[in-house]
Amino acid sequence: FSEQEKPQLLAGKNIMITAGPTREAIDPVRYISNHSSGKMGYALAQAARLLGANVTVVSGPVALAAPTSCHLVKVTSALDMHDAVMADIHQQDIFIACAAVADYRPESIAEQKIKKTNSDEMVVRMIKNPDIVASVAALENSPFTVGFAAETQDVEHYARDKMQRKNLAMIAANDVAQSGQGFNAEDNALTVFWPQGSTQIALASKQDVAVQLLQLIATQFNANTR
Ligand code: CTP
Ligand code: CA
Fold first, then answer.
1. How far is the centre of ligand 1, averaged over its atoms, from the C-alpha of 1 (Å)?
2. Core-most of 58, 136, 162, 197, by most CB within 10 Å?
3. Where are the alpha helices (DSSP H) in the chain?
4. Which domains, ranges and CATH numbers included, belong to the chain?
5. Is residue 77 a contact partner of residue 100, using CB atoms and an 8 Å limit?
6. What is the pLDDT of residues 161-207, one digit of tens each?
7. CA 41 to ligand 2 center in whole angstroms
8. Do residues 67 and 43 make contact, with C-beta atoms less than 8 angstroms apart?
């Protein structure tokens, strides 16, 4: 299909996508984060537009232009992202969790810049963040919920386990041990699992991979809701 001829598999459907990293503040000038670029999430947003969906992107801090014709909600921390998602989730038909959410945050944020001391070490105590995709999937009347899994080994085992534990309809697994794909790379390759099947999306640009993944999601979504 050319860009214009893509069947509008998701015409009029509401999709929310989380994208990018989160930043967990330590003090007013410091934070803990990760190398997520947001490119995969933003590519998914454009692919969802191509298929005719109304798209909301809840994005952590990224160095990307706003996705065109999408509702963009900018957030910083995992708690902010959780709240922004939950505030609008009841309108959504499909939820795709592409963000690299920090699993933990500093237990408290110092009000003033932390000063260097005479000690050669410093300890930052961390506490667990809420699991956003699991919270969405646990809602009554939850949207069709798709997660990502970044794994370095035993990809199928860990991905299927995550899908089950979080009660997801589908999961897209990234083998982050392969160089040149996934985190902060231009290209990506995915293995996508759902309860009754799986398929591979070969290494390609994140734009191409996003269109293929959205077509798979649309097919499963339409099969599940019919
Ligand atoms: N996720 C989320 N909220 C979190 C952590 C993860 O919504 N607090 C989502 C991610 O967006 C992704 C999925 O959960 O869709 C899996 O993320 P991943 O980091 O691979 O899994 P975790 O459950 O955090 O397990 P681990 O990091 O130990 O592999
Ligand atoms: Ca994690």
1. 33
2. 58
3. 39-50, 78-88, 132-137, 155-165, 206-225
4. 9-107+126-225 (3.40.50.10300)
5. no
6. 999 999 999 999 987 777 677 777 888 999 999 999 999 999 999 99
7. 16
8. no
